[in-house]
Amino acid sequence: MDLLSDVFSRFRLRGDVYFTTDFSGRWGVHVPADRRSIRFHLVIQGQCWVAVDGQSEPTLLREGEYALIPHGAGQRLSSSPQARTVALESLITADNPNREGVLLHNGRGSEGRCRVVCGFCRFDDEANHPLFIGLPAMIHLNVDAVGKSPWLGEAIRVTTMEANLGDPGKLAIISRLIEILFMQGVRTQTGPEADTGNPFLRAIQDRQLGPALQAIHERLDHDWTISALAGVAQMSRTQFARRFKDVLQQTPIHYLINWRLQSARQLLRESDLNVAEIAFRVGYQSLPSFSRRFKERFGVAPATYRRHVT
């Protein structure tokens, strides 16, 4: 099983476009925080600097590069690190962005034109998983990263082409491409040259923890114990429990319970199985026990959740 695909499949991800900037001269714009959103900025002409609130150094985005802000922090886009910054809201009027979705701004100075596709991704439900929690404050897909992945370069080319052409349906197409570019950005954190601190990505590449996680995801209905998972990892029970918590920052049982409940939530949303069948599929022999756990985790009973989302 592809564990990254399995995690992504449990959470409904939706991309959307804010606007495409068309800025010139000297400029700086502060985008306010939105903790539910994964911000996305793709430079399709020129270059700009991006700095995440609370981070020390700005990053240069060149044409064909993009940045992801996974945790919804505020960020500053500018023509140079020294440029004066205004709030994004001060640029937005009844006519700006225009009918084509272009946000216009002409600043003073001789800096060249900069066009950036600005959008976001958002999970329909809380994405409480170490893969997403452990992402860095910003993921920068630079020219080197794009050049190593022909498919990534092609996705950027298509996004740029859609933004430039302005054909009917372009916003829907770009929105789907933003979702793909986010997933691709996460995938770049797994390469042999990636220096990732992401706990889940570290764990799935670990020769002992990886098989244990694989077993949980493949056989969620199994009556897993720490001893059984330690056997899969070929470690002692104590060594396994300690290493799992050191890497994933949670106990094996906590991960198992959380993944069962996340999987149950997806089945409630997308399947026709009744609640008892779903409980059994995710490893609960007792319907009351499952219902109690689900309500503790998500604040509503399984049947109530299903009525609200279907």
Structure summarized in a few sentences:
The protein has 310 residues and is of the alpha+beta class. The protein has 13 helices and eleven strands.
Overview of the molecule:
This protein has 310 residues and is of the alpha+beta class. The chain has 2 domains: 11-190, Jelly Rolls (Sandwich); 206-309, Arc Repressor Mutant, subunit A. Helices cover 43% and strands 20% of the residues. The protein is built from 13 helices and 11 strands. The protein has helices spanning 3-10, 130-133, 143-147, 150-165, 170-187, 199-204, 209-218, 226-233, 237-248, 252-270, 275-281, 287-298, 302-309, and strands spanning 13-24, 28-31, 38-45, 47-52, 59-62, 66-69, 75-78, 86-87, 102-106, 115-123, 139-141. Strands 9-1-10-3-6-11 form a 6-stranded mixed β-sheet. A 5-stranded mixed β-sheet has the order 5-4-7-2-8, with no helix packed on it. The chain is elongated and about 65 Å long. The mean pLDDT is 92.
